[in-house]
Amino acid sequence: SRPISLSDLKQMKENKEKFTCLTSYDATFTHVMNQAGVETILIGDSLGMVIQGQDSTLPVTIEDMCYHTAAVKRGNTNAFILADMSFMTYNSTEHALENAGKLMQAGANMVKIEGAAWLKDIIKALSDRGIPVCAHLGLTPQFVNKLGGYKVQGKGQQAADLLLADSLALVAAGADILLYECIPSELGKTLTEAVPVPTIGIGAGPHTDGQVLVMHDMLGANIGKRPRFVKNFLTNGRSIQEAFEAYVYEVKNQQFPAPEHGFKS
Ligand code: KIV
Ligand code: NA
């Protein structure tokens, strides 16, 4: 079968069919995810934490991202591949174009950048040159020092209205997917209904078009406290492939995320 494309994901939103995303950083796990039917794979800069043992995503370089993107690409046959642009690799339009080009040449089908309305010009420039962009909003881990920790975002009417305005502005600039991290479940619903492009959520409730989790977290392997939105799928004597299959099943059937994995307004 041919790999999943951006048009397939847009069609799934139209059809109200949920889709899955997991992070992967190497060829073998990518292959197993393909076998389990995971539609999209993200080479997240979370690799700074889960692979490198850093205490944030800030130390990750574009070379690190390209190395892991190339490894995922070699193991992939079916999934749509998103790759994160790491901290300080999209400071200007020119800088963003150069670094996004590297990720696309390493095998990405789309790049992801963190921010808000200020990303508009960068998104337009990338999009105009054939580079699809996912904008990551809400809790943006590259901003941890500014946010003062990993906290739920978009609480209260004013913050919710701002997130909606930013989302619409970024779609108008050319963003093809919006990813929301740690926002109230109700807001995840409002935003998903308001934008014409697919949304992906992590800690954003059950209503986003797609769901994403860090692979290590959903296999029950984590250093420190497990975030509220994480579920361990490597239970009941499952193999790793069966854990990925259970995740796909539960997302498609809207069993995951459950209310206890979400946040209130
Ligand atoms: O880096 C990452 O893994 C991510 C996801 C958690 C969305 O950005
Ligand atoms: Na990331």
Q: At the third CATH level, what is the topology name? A: TIM Barrel
The overall number of domains is 1
Tell me the CATH architecture.
Alpha-Beta Barrel
**Whole-number mean pLDDT:** 98
Estimate the global geometry from the Cα principal axes.
globular
Small molecules bound in the structure, each named once = 3-methyl-2-oxobutanoic acid, sodium ion
GO molecular function, one term: magnesium ion binding
Subcellular location: Cytoplasm
Function: Catalyzes the reversible reaction in which hydroxymethyl group from 5,10-methylenetetrahydrofolate is transferred onto alpha-ketoisovalerate to form ketopantoate.
Pathway: Cofactor biosynthesis; (R)-pantothenate biosynthesis; (R)-pantoate from 3-methyl-2-oxobutanoate: step 1/2
Structure characterization notes:
The chain has 265 residues and is of the alpha/beta class. It has one domain: TIM Barrel, CATH 3.20.20.60. The protein is 41% helix and 14% strand. It has helices at residues 6-14, 27-36, 47-50, 62-75, 93-106, 120-128, 144-147, 157-173, 185-194, 215-218, 240-252, and strands spanning 19-23, 40-43, 80-84, 110-114, 133-138, 177-181, 199-202, 210-213. It has an 8-stranded parallel beta barrel, surrounded by 7 helices. Strand 4 (110-114), helix 6 and strand 5 (133-138) form a beta-alpha-beta unit. Helix 2 (27-36) crosses helix 11 (240-252). The longest helix has 17 residues, at 157-173. The chain is globular, with a radius of gyration of 17 Å. The mean pLDDT is 98. Bound molecules: 3-methyl-2-oxobutanoic acid and sodium ion. Pfam families: Pantoate_transf. It is found in: Cytoplasm. This is 3-methyl-2-oxobutanoate hydroxymethyltransferase. Homodecamer; pentamer of dimers.
